[in-house]
Amino acid sequence: MQLSKAAADKGYVIIGSPVTFELSITRAGEAKIVDSFKTFVKRELPLPAGSDPAGVTAVVVEPDGTLRPVPTEIVERDGRYYAVVRSLTNSAYALVRSTTIDFADLSGHWAREAIDDMAERLIVNGYANGNFRPNAAVSRAEFAAMLIRALGLPQTGEAMSAFTDVKAEAWYGGAVGQAAAYSLLYGGSDGRFRPDESITREEAFAVVMRAAKLAGIQGVTASEDAERILLAFADGAAIHAWAREDVAGAVQAGLIQGSGGRLAPGGAVTRAETAVMLRRLLVQAGLIRD
């Protein structure tokens, strides 16, 4: 009942029964549960016979009944559909089907298809008034939350011990903690994360490439290659030294493209651009199908 309500609250219905995957290692007769992995582990969940695969995705069922998205690809084999799930954690999984998503302010928007897909996957959310606000700038906290959802990681982490300006009770605290634990997002030398500041394009590009490496995409291996890639853009020289190899890697991997021959590294990243970047990350890493 709790699970059905959690799904209904998000506009989803549960398909079938949850399935629990557990991995343990036995040493000297003592079994130890392995809760997390360094690489994505593949599992398959069969859809109930005769089920329509449209709008179906997999979620992790947390102990409190809340739902967490995980990268999901629907495949057909021998006349039956399966949800292929790739995850960095052991979990109980369920299949859910979304209701129709129709954000009021996306008519004719260039990123509508990507946004709708990511919303169906529970990775991006709209607002209570039915809008998505695609052109709004994204804060560092918001980017961390969307990134962690895209990777299927729990929204839990010790952010309060990592950054002086992230409180335990903050809605983004767990996501920031996870992003820091996986070395995806960093704070400043003063120990602050600056959660409410808009994330710059340079920061977002570098973070997406770090996530891509976690998902198995190879980065740029030589600084000479990074320079060649970046200097193809009119403002490539403006990329800071700390970000150059990751930003070049993101370009090389097809995760970012720039606009008009420019990367605009100091500019803000919009909600639409974030949805598109994260979707490209999942597709290029083979975690979902285009």
Automatic annotation (TrEMBL):
Domain SLH: 98-161, 162-222, 230-290
Top-level division of the source organism's lineage: Bacteria
PROSITE patterns referenced in this protein's UniProt entry, alphabetically: SLH (PS51272)
Signal sequence extent: none
Pfam families: SLH (PF00395)
PANTHER family for the chain: OUTER MEMBRANE PROTEIN ALPHA-RELATED, S-LAYER PROTEIN _ PEPTIDOGLYCAN ENDO-BETA-N-ACETYLGLUCOSAMINIDASE
Name of the protein in its database record: S-layer homology domain-containing protein
